[in-house]
Amino acid sequence: MTDRTHTSVDHAGLTDTFASRRYFRKFGAITSHLARVAGYMQADGALSKSDVKVLTGYLTSLTYTFRALSMKYLLVGRETGRFFGSLAMDKRDSGFPVVTELMTMANDAQQAARHLENMPSESDLKDQMARTIISDRELPTKLQFALSQRLYYQELLRADLFWSRNDPVCEWLGNDGDRRRFLLHWAVYDSQINLPVIYMMELEDSGKVALPKDQRRWPEVQAHLMAQSLGALKLVTIAKGFDGDFDDLHPKRLRRLHVGPMYSSAYTEQSGPLRQVLAQAQAPEGQDWALAWTLEELESERVNEERAGWFSTVEREVFALDPFGGRGADTGATRTQRSIIVPQRPFQVLVDLNPPGFADVRKYVVSAAGQVLRY
Question: Where are the chain's structural domains?
Answer without folding.
Answer: 5-158, 165-374
